[in-house]
Protein backbone atom coordinates (compact mmCIF):
# COMPACT_ATOMS: atom_id res chain seq x y z
CA UNK A 1 0.00 0.00 0.00
CA UNK A 2 1.34 3.42 -0.98
CA UNK A 3 1.39 5.96 1.78
CA UNK A 4 0.15 9.50 1.25
CA UNK A 5 2.92 12.02 0.65
CA UNK A 6 3.79 14.47 3.38
CA UNK A 7 2.35 17.71 1.96
CA UNK A 8 5.20 19.62 3.58
CA UNK A 9 7.73 17.82 1.38
CA UNK A 10 6.08 17.78 -2.06
CA UNK A 11 4.41 20.11 -4.51
CA UNK A 12 0.91 19.01 -5.38
CA UNK A 13 -1.02 19.63 -8.61
CA UNK A 14 -1.93 23.29 -8.77
CA UNK A 15 1.13 24.60 -6.93
CA UNK A 16 2.99 25.19 -10.20
CA UNK A 17 0.74 27.46 -12.21
CA UNK A 18 2.35 27.79 -15.66
CA UNK A 19 5.64 27.99 -17.49
CA UNK A 20 7.11 31.37 -16.53
CA UNK A 21 9.79 31.59 -19.21
CA UNK A 22 12.07 29.57 -21.42
CA UNK A 23 15.72 30.60 -21.77
CA UNK A 24 17.89 29.58 -24.70
CA UNK A 25 21.57 30.27 -25.34
CA UNK A 26 22.16 31.50 -28.89
CA UNK A 27 25.35 32.04 -30.89
CA UNK A 28 24.10 34.78 -33.24
CA UNK A 29 21.63 37.04 -31.44
CA UNK A 30 20.61 38.93 -34.59
CA UNK A 31 19.89 35.73 -36.55
CA UNK A 32 17.83 34.44 -33.62
CA UNK A 33 15.95 37.74 -33.30
CA UNK A 34 15.08 37.53 -36.99
CA UNK A 35 14.03 33.87 -36.69
CA UNK A 36 11.78 34.23 -33.62
CA UNK A 37 10.48 37.70 -34.49
CA UNK A 38 10.25 38.01 -38.27
CA UNK A 39 9.79 34.36 -39.27
CA UNK A 40 7.80 32.94 -36.32
CA UNK A 41 6.07 36.25 -35.58
CA UNK A 42 6.67 36.41 -31.83
CA UNK A 43 6.45 39.83 -30.21
CA UNK A 44 9.84 41.17 -29.11
CA UNK A 45 9.70 42.93 -25.77
CA UNK A 46 11.06 46.47 -25.74
CA UNK A 47 11.29 49.35 -23.28
CA UNK A 48 9.09 48.92 -20.24
CA UNK A 49 7.93 45.48 -21.50
CA UNK A 50 11.37 44.00 -20.74
CA UNK A 51 11.50 42.33 -17.31
CA UNK A 52 13.30 44.69 -14.92
CA UNK A 53 15.78 41.94 -13.99
CA UNK A 54 16.97 41.78 -17.62
CA UNK A 55 16.94 45.44 -18.68
CA UNK A 56 20.66 46.01 -18.20
CA UNK A 57 21.51 42.86 -20.19
CA UNK A 58 19.11 43.90 -22.97
CA UNK A 59 20.66 47.39 -23.02
CA UNK A 60 24.12 45.79 -23.33
CA UNK A 61 22.92 43.64 -26.27
CA UNK A 62 23.42 40.39 -24.37
CA UNK A 63 19.76 39.31 -24.15
CA UNK A 64 16.57 39.75 -26.09
CA UNK A 65 13.10 38.70 -25.02
CA UNK A 66 10.02 37.58 -26.90
CA UNK A 67 6.57 36.71 -25.65
CA UNK A 68 4.41 33.91 -27.01
CA UNK A 69 0.68 34.44 -27.58
CA UNK A 70 -0.08 32.68 -24.29
CA UNK A 71 2.23 35.02 -22.37
CA UNK A 72 5.26 32.77 -21.92
CA UNK A 73 8.48 34.76 -22.18
CA UNK A 74 11.28 33.41 -24.34
CA UNK A 75 14.69 34.75 -23.27
CA UNK A 76 17.54 34.51 -25.77
CA UNK A 77 20.96 34.84 -24.13
CA UNK A 78 23.81 35.76 -26.49
CA UNK A 79 26.69 33.35 -26.02
CA UNK A 80 29.23 34.23 -28.75
CA UNK A 81 31.49 31.34 -27.70
CA UNK A 82 28.69 28.79 -27.97
CA UNK A 83 29.98 25.93 -30.09
CA UNK A 84 28.12 25.32 -33.34
CA UNK A 85 25.39 22.69 -33.38
CA UNK A 86 26.47 19.12 -33.95
CA UNK A 87 26.61 18.21 -37.65
CA UNK A 88 24.00 15.55 -36.84
CA UNK A 89 21.07 17.58 -35.49
CA UNK A 90 19.71 14.46 -33.79
CA UNK A 91 22.67 14.72 -31.35
CA UNK A 92 22.51 18.47 -30.84
CA UNK A 93 20.70 18.47 -27.50
CA UNK A 94 20.62 15.62 -25.04
CA UNK A 95 18.29 16.98 -22.36
CA UNK A 96 15.79 19.18 -24.18
CA UNK A 97 13.77 17.61 -26.95
CA UNK A 98 11.90 20.49 -28.59
CA UNK A 99 9.82 23.63 -28.12
CA UNK A 100 6.31 23.40 -29.57
CA UNK A 101 4.04 26.22 -30.67
CA UNK A 102 0.33 25.64 -31.27
CA UNK A 103 -1.34 27.14 -34.33
CA UNK A 104 -4.89 27.32 -35.66
CA UNK A 105 -5.40 24.31 -37.96
CA UNK A 106 -6.48 26.65 -40.78
CA UNK A 107 -3.08 28.40 -40.63
CA UNK A 108 -0.92 25.26 -40.46
CA UNK A 109 -0.24 24.94 -44.21
CA UNK A 110 0.61 28.65 -44.37
CA UNK A 111 3.15 28.18 -41.55
CA UNK A 112 4.78 25.32 -43.48
CA UNK A 113 5.09 27.55 -46.55
CA UNK A 114 6.59 30.39 -44.49
CA UNK A 115 9.26 28.02 -43.16
CA UNK A 116 10.06 26.78 -46.66
CA UNK A 117 10.16 30.29 -48.16
CA UNK A 118 12.62 31.33 -45.45
CA UNK A 119 14.75 28.23 -46.10
CA UNK A 120 14.39 27.07 -42.50
CA UNK A 121 15.92 23.61 -42.07
CA UNK A 122 13.09 21.09 -41.69
CA UNK A 123 13.80 18.02 -39.56
CA UNK A 124 10.63 16.16 -40.52
CA UNK A 125 7.04 16.67 -41.45
CA UNK A 126 4.51 17.83 -41.96
CA UNK A 127 3.12 14.77 -40.19
CA UNK A 128 -0.51 13.93 -39.49
CA UNK A 129 -1.40 11.98 -36.38
CA UNK A 130 -4.63 11.37 -34.46
CA UNK A 131 -3.49 14.20 -32.15
CA UNK A 132 -3.13 16.67 -35.02
CA UNK A 133 -0.56 17.87 -37.51
CA UNK A 134 3.00 18.98 -36.89
CA UNK A 135 6.20 20.06 -38.55
CA UNK A 136 9.61 19.97 -36.88
CA UNK A 137 12.42 22.36 -37.81
CA UNK A 138 15.54 24.00 -36.40
CA UNK A 139 16.23 27.49 -35.14
CA UNK A 140 19.56 29.14 -36.09
CA UNK A 141 21.33 27.36 -33.20
CA UNK A 142 20.01 23.92 -34.07
CA UNK A 143 17.27 23.77 -31.41
CA UNK A 144 14.32 21.67 -32.53
CA UNK A 145 11.05 23.62 -32.83
CA UNK A 146 7.60 22.28 -33.66
CA UNK A 147 4.55 24.06 -34.99
CA UNK A 148 1.52 21.88 -34.35
CA UNK A 149 -2.24 22.02 -34.41
CA UNK A 150 -5.09 19.95 -33.05
CA UNK A 151 -7.21 18.05 -35.55
CA UNK A 152 -9.72 20.34 -37.24
CA UNK A 153 -13.05 20.48 -35.44
CA UNK A 154 -11.65 19.86 -31.94
UniProtKB/TrEMBL annotation:
<dbReference type="InterPro" id="IPR029068">
    <property type="entry name" value="Glyas_Bleomycin-R_OHBP_Dase"/>
</dbReference>
<dbReference type="GO" id="GO:0046872">
    <property type="term" value="F:metal ion binding"/>
</dbReference>
<dbReference type="InterPro" id="IPR051332">
    <property type="entry name" value="Fosfomycin_Res_Enzymes"/>
</dbReference>
<dbReference type="GO" id="GO:0004462">
    <property type="term" value="F:lactoylglutathione lyase activity"/>
</dbReference>
<dbReference type="InterPro" id="IPR018146">
    <property type="entry name" value="Glyoxalase_1_CS"/>
</dbReference>
<keyword id="KW-0479">Metal-binding</keyword>
<protein>
    <submittedName>
        <fullName>VOC family protein</fullName>
    </submittedName>
</protein>
<dbReference type="InterPro" id="IPR037523">
    <property type="entry name" value="VOC_core"/>
</dbReference>
<dbReference type="Pfam" id="PF00903">
    <property type="entry name" value="Glyoxalase"/>
</dbReference>
<feature type="domain" description="VOC">
    <location>
        <begin position="18"/>
        <end position="150"/>
    </location>
</feature>
<dbReference type="InterPro" id="IPR004360">
    <property type="entry name" value="Glyas_Fos-R_dOase_dom"/>
</dbReference>
Amino acid sequence: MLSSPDLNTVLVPGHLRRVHHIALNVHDLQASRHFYGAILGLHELTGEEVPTTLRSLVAEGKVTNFVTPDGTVLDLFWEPELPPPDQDPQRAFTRANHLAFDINPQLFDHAVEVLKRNQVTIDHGPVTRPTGRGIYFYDPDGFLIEIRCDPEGT
